[in-house]
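Lecture notes, unit on protein representations.

Consider one protein chain, 202 amino acids long.
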Amino acid sequence: MRLKGLAQVVAMMVARLGYRQIDVLGVSWGGLLAQQLAGQYPAQVRRLVLVSTGPGASAVPGNISTMLELANPRRWHDLAYMQEIAPQIYGGAFRTEPEWVREVFRDTKRPSFAGYYGQLMAVMGWSSLGWLHRLPQPTLVLAGTDDPIVPVANARVMAERIPNARLQLYDDGHLFLMTRLDEVAPLLSEFLTEVTIGGTGQ
């Protein structure tokens, strides 16, 4: 299923659960789906948070060796291997504090090989760059300055293209949302609860 179909499934699920509007936060690949959902169903998505993500196929590419590692799901099935390559692919705190690997990934569900490659196929050739300027939602773009997967330039491009966006950078890597949660959580709370013109923000 491509992102358009996945966004449709999410929208149907939200409606089935009885929600008129939702706030959407997407990390990395999830940020691509979040953009698609916000663009495809603008009335349903109230606020948007894009974390460690880019505009898809038109993004500034990550490190080549990192991209090759990401093509192989071995890291999800071999924690020792994950510990070995985490500094290279995730950057930031993982470079100096290897104990973060077990902290972050010890309870991670291992994806099937079919699911993993299906996820890659879902976004192949997809790009949001041509329509980011039409997103109406207040948007918070968060990125790490040491992200080997999604270079920080992508966050800057998205924040410039999305009309009502603000950008916040962290001196960390791809998974700063986990390693710097104490810093990020208050910002997220403030953004998602602030009062908007003509509304309550609730």
